[in-house]
């Protein structure tokens, strides 16, 4: 079958299947797009998904904004900020901003939002995003102070990311569930219709203030949950979708070769890695991973370059550090690099007393094909794999109990451009720490709490050097995302995996 | 028999022997022959997998991913192409036959033993035994197989052994129902009464009088359930809960090819077609065996 014939057949099927869905496009100023996962609650404090971040950035604003290209911090709902002392941040607020429901934005909203989310019993889903704040105080109508629990160098980064400001009067009345059904923010898009988990319609906020996000251009964004990638592609062919994202590399490559669509690829902060039970927490006995030579053998056994080039493709890169290279403090030159060398891996295994290899459970929760490829590489040097694919929540629970000898994990750092969001998350003797190295913990504690950038860099580098020397992890690669859209849409994706509707335009 | 030449006159008088009749029925039955030939072929392929497979089914080559099969412009190096990790598709299909046949045979054997024992006991003894067995059958029928299998596999984790056990312990209902009904029919026959009259023990009655006469029904159910188990394994593996990678399983191959279905449909079509042919062959053979062994077809 020729490509055109194939395409028209598929388009025909898709059209028949989606009869009744209005064809909307440039003419009606509506961009149709698909989410793969169901978004549990539009209220950004009560979901932990990537889709939620996308909605959050469209509907609400934070106090500060990080330019996705230059990584510079600029004022958003705040216009300027100063540190009064190590734990007090004073912000001047922008005047004349209105919420979608007409409520005026002022210091009361900031105080209310911060005090609400910082309280643990209010149940914000990702506590790490908010639990560094103690409370907020109003100085005058357009000046607030945010009080921190302790020194927290990444405060500005967090204020420009997950902390968005809610309208106090409305939120006090509606609460998280009301906010999830009828979201109200200050952002460039307002939500006009919500069918939870299924369908979201956003409309341009005509009265959006002139902030760093810029003015929205496309009138209406219509988002539907379509879980299957093949269905998404079929709908893209038939015209009922204008844009899809998170498209797997193979499909994206095929779509790009068709010429009718723009395929844009951007790196993400997500890093894939193998975690090994170096501390010997699992019930595996004898536990080979307690031996540094075995851990190094695992590092040598896997051809990460081949995986990046043939499986992940796009802007993915081989990663040698337990953090994403662009993150502040992620010292790539401090890391020990393990090249692909199966002979050396076998030799190390033999030296460690496993000339014929051993069998281990191997857990994974996503990207079964990548996990399979890794398993196959390990098999080739003699590490036989008992493959277990679990749901993320189940694997995380097992991991916390310390029952996982070897697992393929990924971490997206919540798009926070600071090494503390990854390396400190896993190596400070928390429940997910498989290494439990005191020296690493001590170095990270200095790095996390210092306000001097040079000191932070130095101590992250120390920790990274130690982690890679000891091969506690086998860092693998960074992920990328493919955005596929109709050629009459203009969009340049950014490296933080946040879709910005504001920067989308019709050609 | 010392004398191999049979007097044609004598043959005309006594007619063909039962063995000859059976052979004639077997070889004259088209469905049975097709099914048997295909199944024997698949079994041979499974047995001689290491000799037949052109490549190691586990050897991955990331630079040679998703090479098309020969009939879509590929090379003879990989006659049926390669999968998403560059493993030879033909070799994986050949090794996958082992997994499918093994699961089908063992699961059908386990459930056959359970179901037949329950069904024959219920049919022969009647009364309370029957009431208990009927109750158990109803309980079992009220549970959706796929759902229970999914739950068990989700708790215990997917592996070949778990899948075989789960299917073996779930698929006995049809055996029990059919065996119970057939036993009830047969136990009232004169020859059973006669055997009982000469003082045959219950085990002897069951083994030599009842079993041989309900065997034809059993064979049909065995083939049906074998096909059922193979399909269920494929379904579980497709959902990621059955046989775990890198073990080659046809259901897993369909699942792994699914993502590229729009662009490389052969990734799904090839294992799907093989699965279809195998299940069809088993069912044809079961049907045929029933036809040739059923007492009413003997004349």
TrEMBL record, chain A:
InterPro entries assigned: Peptide/Ni-bd, SBP_5, SBP_5_CS, SBP_5_dom
Answer yes or no on keyword Signal.
yes
Which CDD domains does the record cross-reference, listed alphabetically? PBP2_NikA_DppA_OppA_like_10
Keyword Repressor on entry: no
Task: Tell me where the signal peptide lies.
Answer: 1-24
User: Which Pfam families does the protein's record reference?
Assistant: SBP_bac_5
Q: Which residues form the Solute-binding protein family domain?
A: 72-428
Q: Name one GO molecular function term.
A: peptide transmembrane transporter activity
**GO cellular component annotations of the record:** ATP-binding cassette (ABC) transporter complex; outer membrane-bounded periplasmic space
> Which Gene3D superfamilies is this protein grouped with?
Dipeptide-binding Protein, Domain 1, Dipeptide-binding Protein, Domain 3, Periplasmic binding protein-like II
Keywords in alphabetical order: Signal
One GO BP on record is: peptide transport
What are the subcellular locations of this protein?
Periplasm
| UniProt record similarity statement | Belongs to the bacterial solute-binding protein 5 family.
Q: What's the protein name?
A: ABC transporter substrate-binding protein
Lineage summary: Bacteria, Pseudomonadati, Pseudomonadota, Alphaproteobacteria, Rhodobacterales
From TrEMBL, chain B:
User: Does the keyword Metal-binding feature in the UniProt annotation?
Assistant: no
Q: Which residues form the ABC transmembrane type-1 domain?
A: 97-286
Q: Which GO terms describe its biological process?
A: transmembrane transport
Tell where it localizes. Answer: Cell membrane
Which topology term describes how it sits in the membrane? Multi-pass membrane protein
Per the record's keyword annotation, is Cell cycle included, yes or no? no
Instruction: Identify one Gene Ontology CC term for this UniProt entry.
Output: plasma membrane
Primary location class? membrane
* Bilayer-crossing regions: 31-49, 99-125, 145-172, 214-243, 263-282
Q: Which Gene3D superfamilies match?
A: MetI-like (1.10.3720.10)
In this record, what's one Pfam family? OppC_N
Keywords of the record, alphabetical order, are: Cell membrane, Membrane, Transmembrane, Transmembrane helix, Transport
What protein family does this chain belong to? Belongs to the binding-protein-dependent transport system permease family.
Query: Entry's PANTHER family?
Result: OLIGOPEPTIDE TRANSPORT SYSTEM PERMEASE PROTEIN APPC, PEPTIDE ABC TRANSPORTER PERMEASE PROTEIN
- Please report the name of this protein according to its UniProt entry: Peptide ABC transporter permease
Q: Which organism is it from?
A: Seohaeicola zhoushanensis
